[in-house]
Write a structure and sequence with these properties.
- The structure is a single chain.
- The chain has about 325 residues and is an alpha/beta fold.
- The protein has a domain of about 110 residues.
- The protein contains eleven helices and twelve strands.
- The strands form four sheets. It has a five-stranded parallel beta sheet. A three-stranded mixed beta sheet has the order 6-5-8, with no helix packed on it.
- α2 packs across α3 and α3 packs across α4.
- The structure holds zinc ion.
- Zinc ion binds next to loops.
């Protein structure tokens, strides 16, 4: 939605650093309009994402910040959404020589790893032809997001094994070297919860890099690109450790949902006496309140709080001022 996009672009400009804007399936539907039905063909989700991407592209150029457009988790049931997005990319590529989105995530982690890799490799081949990157997921990210609830899975399933990460490398590297990234499970969780059984363990990623390097006899210390899902609520130390082990992208959603709401919450508390009716406030019984309940007033607070949270994330990620480095 546009206030969140504005917050992303404003933060990127202030940080002088690139930004990844990603749409989830539910985010795409929301962007198209919740009054529309999203049928099994996923047309509403596709339209919402395509419209959002065009909006971001137009404004990013005006702001002068590089933006990577991406889409989030896509399970097997949502593949028509993925297909629709790829068609839009191919159409855009034919006209402009680049895809509409920079990358997409395919999340077939609920299927066997063999099937996951078979389908992922097929899509990667199609995507690499138009310079579009693929993010795949193995294992399980804990917590709950966009209607997928993994809050009850066994703790040991929340950690990927080096062999599984090697399997992804073997399946995808020959198809399109370096054009894919891996959302592996290292105790990361969607959402922010009070501390429980799951512990963020970035070292899992470091061990996997060593394993793949040794098995393949490679020169490079970091043969895999990793993605950190569920970055919200993580400490700066853990985030930077994860980057050391080859994390190139971190998702942050829950914390920015909170900052967005926090801005509105504080605005309502601060201006409460001016928000109880259209007319009448502490300045006089006939004074109009229009300039206080105008959506742009309280949504602006949501944006400002979110910009500040995102600037904190740039610090966490060592990404401040990246464009002048
Ligand atoms: Zn995720």
């Amino acid at each position: 939605m546009s206030p969140i996009i504005n917050a992303c672009l404003e933060a990127a400009k202030k940080a002088n650093s690139p930004m990844i804007v990603q749409f989830s399936n539910g985010g795409g539907i929301y962007n198209a309009g919740k009054g529309l039905k999203n049928e099994a063909d996923q047309k509403t989700a596709v339209m919402g994402c395509v419209a959002g991407a065009l909006h971001v592209r137009a404004l990013a150029e005006f702001y002068g910040v590089p933006v990577i457009l991406h889409t989030d988790h896509c399970s097997k049931a949502l593949l028509p959404w993925f297909d629709g997005l790829l068609e839009a990319n191919e159409e855009y590529f034919a006209k402009h020589g680049e895809p509409l989105f920079s990358s997409h995530m395919l999340d077939l982690s609920e299927e066997s790893i063999e099937e996951n890799m078979e389908i992922s490799a097929k899509y990667l081949k199609r995507m690499a032809a138009i310079d579009c990157h693929l993010e795949v997921e193995i294992g399980i990210t804990g917590g709950e997001e966009d209607g997928v609830d993994n809050t009850d899975v066994a703790p040991e399933d929340l950690y990927s094994k080096p062999e599984e990460i090697h399997q992804v490398y073997k399946a995808l590297e020959p198809v399109a070297p370096g054009m894919y990234s891996i959302a592996a499970a290292f105790g990361n969780v969607h959402g922010v919860y009070s501390p429980g059984n799951v512990k963020l363990t970035p070292k899992i990623l470091g061990n996997a890099q060593k394993f793949v390097k040794a098995e393949e006899g490679l020169e490079t210390d970091k043969p895999c690109y990793f993605v950190f899902h569920g970055g919200s609520g993580s400490s700066r130390e853990d985030i930077r450790e994860a980057i050391d082990y080859g994390v190139i992208k971190m998702n942050i959603d829950t914390d920015t949902q909170w900052s967005f709401w926090d801005g509105v919450k504080d605005y309502v508390a601060d201006k409460s006496d001016y928000l109880q009716g259209q007319i009448g406030n502490p300045d006089g019984p006939e004074k109009p309140n229009k300039k206080y309940y105008d959506p742009r007033m309280w949504l602006r607070e949501a944006e400002t709080y979110t910009v500040n949270r995102l600037l904190g994330a740039y610090e966490d990620l060592n990404a401040m001022d990246a464009l002048s480095k």
